[in-house]
What does this fold into?
Amino acid sequence: MTGFKIDTFSGKAPKVFARLLPNDMAQVADNVRLDSGRLDPWKGNAATSISPVASYNITQQTKTLFRYNSSIWIGSNEELDIARSPIAEDPWERIYVTGVGSASGGNGDYPRMTLATIVGSGTYYQLGLPAPASLPSAPALTNKDAAAATATLLADSEVPQSRSYVVTYVTAYGEEGPPSAPLISNIVEVYSDQITTVTFPANVSGNYNITQKRLYRTDSSGTFRRVTEVPFAQATYADTVNEVNLGEANPTTSFAAPPDNVSADHKDGPMRGLVSMPNGILAGFSGQTVCFSEAFQPHAWPKDFQLTVKSDIVALAPMTNGLLVLTKEKPAMIQGLSPSNMAMSEIDSTLSCVSKRSVVDMGEYVIYASPDGLVMGGEQGLKLATGDLLTRDQWQEIVPTSLVGFFWEGHYIGFYSTGSEDKGFIFDPRGGKNSFSALDFHATAGYNDLETDELYLVVSGSVVKFAQGSALNFKWRTKKFYTPSPINPAVAKVDCDSYSPNPVFKLYSDGVLKHTQTVTNSDSFRLPSGYKGQEFEAEITGSVAVNEICVYESAREIGSNA
It folds into this structure.
């Protein structure tokens, strides 16, 4: 018997010589779903009524899609990183954003915060708060009872208290920034019958939404404790507070704003790559530096929490107990449950990351694009996941630097642009013969909606739901079946549940198309005679499920193998 029968359909492995593929694997597998073993068409995308709020656009160049809440979506041509507030039931529904201003290819502008009431207008506030300038002068001293003028008498009977003052800024949301620097020249000696009048430094300018200032002074132990809170515009304050009535110690001495776009202060540019970690921590990076926020305080980024790796960072990927740092060279793992005790170790691997947008959280691990293929990375190490499917050269042909990835039902959905074509692929990291197949469309952005378990994509400038539409037209081509002696196949058969619309069968011999057949039923059909070949491929296209393909030298062989 010569010929072949395909009754189980699998994916493709371009790395493997086409003759050496298992009989059920393919050279071409476009728009096919293979979970059941038969050849099913992949479902197309379904239109949605989703449109971004005012001040945001969905275009052919959209790189970011984000669902703020049930009624607010954000679309942007910029490569934004967006993290929700780690504060449970945040009354302002704050989100935190890096990458604004990145559309031109730069690192972006300063990190930002916005909230539900203003996001529709495109309004942001700068993330983090600056430290106020030091007090411009020492506090002025006056007697509580000016008429008595008792200060001279007290000077002989009382040891004055040395006082130093600092001030902090507070936003409308209760976020408090770092204190001003105390100056030795502003220390005053105060007797119990004296009032100290503090002149506040000039208010900072900037888009911070500061509404209040908090004043702190040293107690008898030298600890800065809270005196009062005053409106942002207030210029002076007369301090008559007894030490026993001072408030809490200043909690923000280590606080700092994240790196911004002031090049004099941050040579590597503003923080970007914002991600949310367990325990209320946010993380981002600038150059080779990883930055961490205080737990549940996204406005505070102490410099003591920063860690430095050996190469420029491309992306961050949160893990259960830490953070995977993907760089242009060797990756690193940072582990710890608190930002103050993070420990970093370099991973002995050459699997660098070439596309920040390729990084996808798959649950217990992440997948990202390296120069050699897709990599599975987690706390147990790194693995080249596509090493058995694609050579390095084949992988490079899809331009992995262009790769954008998404999670969908345990699969990695990737889209790439080569300059001549924009397409996609489906990769199943669980392995097996169905690991890899192609998609003939391209998405520029997407959003995994965990609430509805749906993947939204931006395709051709419109938002669609992935794999929720009608069946796509697929193409599936067999391996190259080789016969030791030349033959002339005589008959073929394609078994489907339905033949509407009609699938199309093609037969190739030694690389030349020999026959095209529109299939209307399960009956066998004749193939052309007058030639002999040794290498045969069958191809089926259509949008109906296919159960079986048979190609044989005689009708008797089809009957005997039915």
